[in-house]
Amino acid sequence: MEPALYIVATPIGNLNDITLRAVEILKTVDYVICEDTRHSKKLLNFFGINKKTTSLHQHNEKNKTDEIVNLCQKGKSIAYISDAGTPAISDPGAFLVNSFHDAKLRVIPIPGVSAVIAAFSVAGLTDHHFQFYGFLPNSKKKAHDYLLKIYKSNIATVIYESPNRVMSTLSEIINIFGEEHIVIIARELTKIFESIKKASAKELVDFYKENKIQTKGEFVLIITQSNSYIDMDEEIILRALKFTLKDLSLSQSVKLVSSIYNINKKEVYNLALRLKNE
Ligand code: SAM
User: Fold this and answer.
1) What share of the chain in percent tops pLDDT 70?
2) CA distance linking residue 98 with residue 19, whole number of Å
3) Do 22 and 86 form a contact (C-beta atoms < 8 A)?
4) Rounded distance between C-alpha atoms, residue 122 and residue 106, angstroms
5) Mean pLDDT, to the nearest integer, of 199-207?
6) What is the CA(218)–ligand 1 centre distance, in A?
7) 171, 136 in Cβ contact below 8 A?
8) Å from CA of 87 to ligand 1 middle
9) Does domain 116-223 have CATH number 3.30.950.10?
10) Domain spanning 5-113: which superfamily?
């Protein structure tokens, strides 16, 4: 087998989603490196792959990489798998891959499932453009800033979300995009309790309030394109707000400035808040 790093996609729930080629590669390579050896053992056992494994995860990726590069330089073939889906997609692997590029060694993708692609394929967005953000930052303020960036980008955006944050992220989407904004939620993809919901952010919040059990599991959110954002020079809006805030209340200023420039009230409100907090 050709000495190389094989980046192998594995299922995100349903084990039948592995490809024939992935199984063949995992059976044939000299080494299988896993994000978590105990986790991947189940998958490898299921396919009768009995191989010595070692781990490479976000905390040891930098230390372990040299060792793996050396193995390949000595003619060994190596497969890397993350816990689920495609490595290096909101998962470890990118550092390892890059080190192989630097060492002029071959990197071979073994494509398969990724939650981002599975979710987008059932979103029904006829304008095919989208961007992928992965996980929003943990800090509330940074997550807000990211969502604002997404709003301004005017591009449908796929994000990964954890179950304990899905409600607060939906509320933040309402704050920035408005409660009528359409969001697609793909939950527990390929698993028994899979559900795909396409509705306004408000309808989704109401649904999850009524069905708390459905806030458990794994989530992909697709925030549809914002359309309403008009890319205007922030400086102009800030200058107008500074002027109006001298005589008017915050809400009056926001109303006036947003109607003069014909831009989204939430956007102007955020700028007005920024001015107030300065
Ligand atoms: N590398 C993986 C991929 O290619 O999709 C993603 C790994 S990331 C650490 C895990 C996140 O992916 C989850 O928190 C969730 O947002 C999303 N995800 C993974 N499996 C999923 C599933 N079965 N249904 C919905 N989302 C899933």
Assistant:
1) 98
2) 25
3) no
4) 34
5) 97
6) 6
7) no
8) 11
9) yes
10) Tetrapyrrole methylase, N-terminal domain (3.40.1010.10)
Residue 129 bridge partners (DSSP): none
* Atom of ligand 1 at shortest range from CA of 159: 16
Residue 138 has which token pair?
Answer: 């943990």
Residues 6 or more apart in contact with residue 35 via CB below 8 angstroms: 55, 56, 57, 81, 82, 83, 87, 91, 92
Tokens of 153: 């980008």
How many angstroms separate the CA atoms of 268 and 247, rounded? 17
**Site to substitute for ligand 1 among 16, 18, 19, 90, most atoms within 8 A of C-beta:** 90
Q: What tokens appear for 89 in the block?
A: 């997609």
Average pLDDT, the chain: 94
For residue range 161-190, list pLDDT tens digits in order: 999 999 999 999 999 888 889 999 999 999
Chain centroid, CA 107 distance in Å: 23
Q: Are 9 and 22 in contact (CB under 8 A)?
A: yes
For the record, the structure tokens of 277 come out as: 């907090």
188 ligand 1 Cβ < 6 A: yes
Q: Give CB contacts under 8 A, 24+ apart, made by 201-206.
A: 201/170, 201/173, 201/174, 201/177, 202/174, 204/170, 205/167, 205/170, 205/171, 205/174
Domain boundaries, the chain: 5-113, 116-223, 234-277
The pTM assigned to this predicted structure is 0.85
